[in-house]
Give the backbone structure.
Amino acid sequence: MTLRISVIGTGYLGATHAACLAELGFDVLGVDRSAAKVDALSRGLVPFHEPGLDELVAGHTASGRLRFTTDLAEAAAFADVHFICVGTPQQSQGTAADLTAVFDVAAGLAPHLRHSTVVIGKSTVPVGTAAELAATLRARLPLGVEAEVAWNPEFLREGHAVQDTLRPDRLVFGVTSPGAELVLREIYAAAIERGTPVHVTDLATAELAKVAANAFLATKISFINAMAEISDRAGADVVALADVLGDDARIGRRFLDAGIGFGGGCLPKDIRALAARAAELGAPSIRALLEDVDDINLRARDRAADLAAAMCGGDLDGRRVALLGAAFKPLSDDVRDSPALHVAAALRRRGADVRVFDPAAANNARAVAPELTYVAHVDAALHDADLVVLATDWPELVALDPGRAGALVRSRRILDGRNKLDEEAWTAAGWAFRALGRAAAPVATAPVAPAPAPTPAPTPAPRRPGRLRSRAAALLR
Ligand SMILES: NC(=O)C1=CN([C@@H]2O[C@H](COP(=O)(O)OP(=O)(O)OC[C@H]3O[C@@H](n4cnc5c(N)ncnc54)[C@H](O)[C@@H]3O)[C@@H](O)[C@H]2O)C=CC1
Ligand SMILES: O=C(O)[C@H]1O[C@H](OP(=O)(O)OP(=O)(O)OC[C@H]2O[C@@H](n3ccc(=O)[nH]c3=O)[C@H](O)[C@@H]2O)[C@H](O)[C@@H](O)[C@@H]1O
């Protein structure tokens, strides 16, 4: 018999997870407290932008394998296994995670359960949450019914969510019994058969592995942004530097793109939540590290605003700025803690007339930053601009033609906030080009000590020079 699964919380994570479970052949019921979301999803419509998800949701709602409801009692009656995928945002007062939704779900589900089950947490939570959740469930279960809690953190990236869910690079099963492990192995049988590594851990390790992964990624980005800062001071090029680092297989090139830094619904809140949890647990080292990571990240946004002002002669008042991108990353309409919108707001505060274009995120951006001006086409943003800022590296924005763009603007100035544009092509088309960490050769502020007189090179043993060697020799003569 096919396993019947409920997925509680159908946002970016839950809607994707539910649709992919249906794709894998399970009968799935998605649950959300938002009636509007449930209504849209039930009609086969995905209320956010995620490549490939529309087809899955439309197909499986039509076939009846994927349904949605607002009713936890219906989920309790329907499913053998329940996934918790609700939001765990940053608390409105403070930096810790707000776990209200996770505990509300447990408290709301438990009294309706009529047969023993596994409740699998997928939301990102502070270490220790799963154990507390198990106690919350136990306290509300009907007599004779058992519910085991397992933790199965999710590592998908927005913009690649379907592919990451169907073909994960690793699976983490935080369990307290072999039975829960068996259930998880059945759910992920297709990926396991393909050879996906499975890490079976205790609950705490599973919870912590998730936030550690996000903390490491955030640290990598802030590390390269810190190097961008010193590169600007020293007249070095952070992109070339990242290429050098990236060729070391121990380091790797990914997540070393310097620019206006990381944002989104996860990395920023997850490092803050981990720092807060570390403080509670008396683990000061990770807390100190992550506070610095956060500071460096936010400073990158300010440095972009400073550079924009410097490019306009120090004063943005009355300048028209084309801000390209509003989403926190390309291929997404998510604007949660978006660096692009943060920079846009900073430029506006300095008096600039900012016109924002984004291929998918304008509506969401308008809802959180209604004071900005949004335009429906990139040309409308470029028209008469004194400065262009690339803030989100959407492929179509990275591929903009500098010649065509140059015909639309008032002044050919461009700030590449993502270090993704082809500098040579833009400068060849007459643009003043700047990017964070790629100083147009200022500034060694401290005097550099004079180099010691060279010791004479030993006379080389005579031998026939190769072609390259003789060219070098010619250059040196
Ligand atoms: N967005 C992503 O790429 C990933 C997110 N995560 C984690 O997954 C969790 C969810 O994140 P997102 O999907 O991005 O958030 P989201 O805000 O898009 O979705 C959360 C959903 O939960 C629903 N919800 C809230 N309280 C509820 C309740 N009491 N009962 C039923 N539904 C409720 C909301 O209406 C919303 O639809 C977070 O812990 C996040 O850190 C983990 C990996 C990837
Ligand atoms: O927990 C989560 O929700 C997810 O958070 C991130 O995924 P996501 O937020 O979708 O986006 P990323 O691709 O990680 O990018 C995050 C931010 O970092 C920025 N970034 C990324 C890479 C880089 O080199 N430089 C850089 O500034 C991006 O522009 C973006 O603003 C993680 O990559 C996922 O593994 C994780 O599951």
